[in-house]
Amino acid sequence: MTDITSRLSDALADRYEIERHLGEGGMATVYLAHDVRHDRKVALKVLKPELAAVIGAERFLNEIKVTANLQHPHILPLYDSGEIESFLYYVMPFVEGETLRDLLDREKQIAVDDAIEITRAVAAGLGYAHRHGVIHRDIKPENILLHEGQALIADFGIALAVSQAGGSRLTETGLSLGTPHYMSPEQAMGDRELDARSDVYALGAILYEMLAGEPPFTGPTVQAIVAKVLTSEPELVTTYRKTVPPHVESAVHAALEKLPADRPASADEFSQALEGQIAATQMRRTAARAEGRVPVVWKRRMVANWQAVLGVGLALALGLAIGNLADDGTGTGSGDVGWFEIDAQPGTSILGHSIDISRDGRRIVYIGGTSGTGNTLYRRDLNSPVAVAITGAGGGDIGYPFIEPGGERVGFYQDRQLRTISMAGGAARSIVSITGSGRGASWTSDGRVVYHEGPGSSLMVVDAEGGDPVALTVVDTGQVDHRWPHVLPGNRWVVFTIWKGLPAQSEVGAASMETGEVRTLVPGVSPRFVEPDLLVYGSAEGVLRTVRFDPRSATVQSSPITVLDSILIDSDGSVEYTVSWNGTLAFHDYFRQLVPVAVDRDGRESVLASPSLVPPVGPRLSSDGAAFAVGDQSVVDQPGLWVYSVRRSTFAPLVDGDGFYPLWTADNDTIIFSRNEGADVRVYSVPVDRSLDPTLLMDLPGQHRTQDMSPDDRFVLLRKNVGTRYELWVLDRETDGNPTPWLSTDYLERAPAFSPNGRWVAYSSDESGRDEIYVRPFPGPGGRVTVSTEGGIEPAWNPNGRELFFRSGSRLLGVPVETGEAFRVTGPAIALADGPYYSYGWQRQYDVFPDGERFLLMRPKDDQSRLNVIVNWIEAWRDRVGEN
């Protein structure tokens, strides 16, 4: 028995005999005790000493009297309260059973009917209390007891008593009222005058968790959760649980509205909504929520109150964390954990695969897309409020930055070159030419660069000042290539991705910098190191994991632990994160959710579908424009091939599992698509009505990705990875043979598109040093014609054959052409649309409606052009695994 427990037991001996310690919450310690006078078991709750000191006994006891008169079947009554030897305590019945938290920890999700029954019981108790002028303020699963089939609300009014008695001095204790997962936005923003709708919000959050398996908002820190409560919208419950009835989902999300005025006005109204009695009102609210709308008045209020709400917790944490970085540049100083976001500079968007952080965690570089002018490399020092463009690093196809160990230079890929430049800007220097599209590079501390030069490539090493590269590793049988390298301390080992075609099949490997020896470490992709002994990497389930790791011997020394449960892993094995050696984590939800939109020639857009997609591969419209097919390659969610009906506004699965790059036949009855099978990519066809299973069209090993189909459905153009090059191949569907090469050069040819008369093929190639659009006759022979002059990717034809579209930077351009006996450009390119629409140069990511006047594009859902940064993230990790 502890000293405090012993003192308490002696002081209360004539009233209560303490039997054992039951648990501890944010405000009180709980004991099982025997009520001597009434011969019954009770729960004795003792306020934390620091809280009791701030409140004072007289004020607390006066305030708690208000709750003693609450008598309801679903409210646990208050038996007693008092003060003795500086202890403030209150007494409630001891309930044999479990809390809702216990049930959720065991079951994770609860049957829909049971969840609704529990919620309606709690709503009944809340409604009674609200009618008597009492707000709970701390509704959470821990305060809902389950006893013989009944739900009971515990600690009713205690939070109110603490708040009213403690006043503004409560903040001095470091404690807060409410639990962030269930805290209403107005409570999170510090409002003292809360009403019934704050409790309704908390109850809605609890029902959401019972149905979905997790609260509406989660995060590694209190600040992170509060930030999401104020600014984000929860995923629809049916994203996790398709069996939830529409009226229940509608009621849940109505309860979670940001503005109290948009929620059910009372707990009773919320209960009625769960029964479907007022579903129409709530459906309107859910429709607004699904579109991501946050009321303007609420946005203004969030901005006005942001500093007041998070200033002490978040800004102070960041100040301590950044200020405590070691002065010697090692970044190993101690500091609090803090979370903040980096927004793109005005007029730009932060692109994917584009972030790196210095080893000391003080500086981040990222690539920003600028409307009309291409991409630029930006530098953001964490002690500075703005990012600075690095002059000399931009204006073209720039990608995959990597910072030197000292943090004064940064390397990047551009125009088939690996280049370096000073962080202060200036002239970029080419250190080596590459043969393909590289996937990642890393700087050693002795002045070398380990890099990947293109599809099929091993890891290469070159002096950072230039010179002849040498191969470090050898790609083995069953492996596609070695990519995403990261050099470890001491320059003895480099960890990297052993790429096998899919994230789920790939592994994290380590290669000796001296001998080239390769060893397999764990299943996963994109590894990074954190001092002194952690290896962080992405897992195919869409999570970030870490293992204990010895960087001297390159050996794993523990089982993996998940540290971030939702992160974007792309189909090339890249993970949208970076982490410094001292544990500052930055990650990016680059285009994590995309919404299909129709855009006209004046740039006006209309949303086609409210469901969001996770980097879709496609999309392709049917010839009548009534539907489009899209391959959802999400690693987190179930991938598949989907068809969206424009007329009915519905999505329907066509192919379960892996399927992408869909092409429609002219009659719109069949779709040709690609599918990953181990290290190979093969071509299949499937009827749109799903009357037959997918049929294999060709069985030639290799990576053949469907690109376009001739108007007569006979020829399918494919992009094939051949070593470090991309070639264009053609499959003749009227023969039983396999595809044959159509265009094979030393360059990267991509995204071919047949003209409407089938006589010409437009495609992009980097033969000039950057991607441009070219046109060749099909099937040939004949020379090529250059179409673009300032960069171009993803060509598509106007169905009338008199115009060719393509993308350049963030713009969609159209150029008039003739496609008769000869092909020629007849006028200048004209900008048709400009915006942060999803683009992926390897495959066209838009399509043209049959009228040639509108375009199907993918817009990011909400504003996702930002980076999340967690300073001293390693401290949060150690707290999570109990190391501090």
What is shown here, in short?
The chain is an alpha+beta fold.
How would you describe what is shown here?
This protein has 14 helices and 59 strands. The protein has 884 residues and is of the alpha+beta class. The strands form 14 sheets. Strands 1-2-3-5-4 form a 5-stranded antiparallel sheet, with helices on both faces. Strands 10, 11, 12, 13 and 14 form a 5-stranded antiparallel sheet that branches. A hairpin with a 4-residue loop joins β34 (594-600) and β35. α5 (112-131) packs antiparallel against α8. The longest helix has 28 residues, at 296-323. It is globular, with a radius of gyration of 31 Å. The model is unreliable at 165-176 and 279-335 (pLDDT under 50).
Task: Bin the strand percentage.
Answer: 35-45%
Q: Poorly predicted ranges (pLDDT <50, ≥5 residues)?
A: 165-176, 279-335
pLDDT averaged over residues: 81
Rg (C-alpha, Å): 31 Å
Instruction: Report the principal-axis shape.
Output: globular
Terminal CA distance reads 24 Å
- How many helices? The count is 14
The profile of the biggest β sheet is:
5 strands, antiparallel
Structural class: alpha+beta
Placed side by side, the strands forming the largest sheet appear as 1-2-3-5-4
Helix content range: 10-25%
- Can you count the beta strands? 59
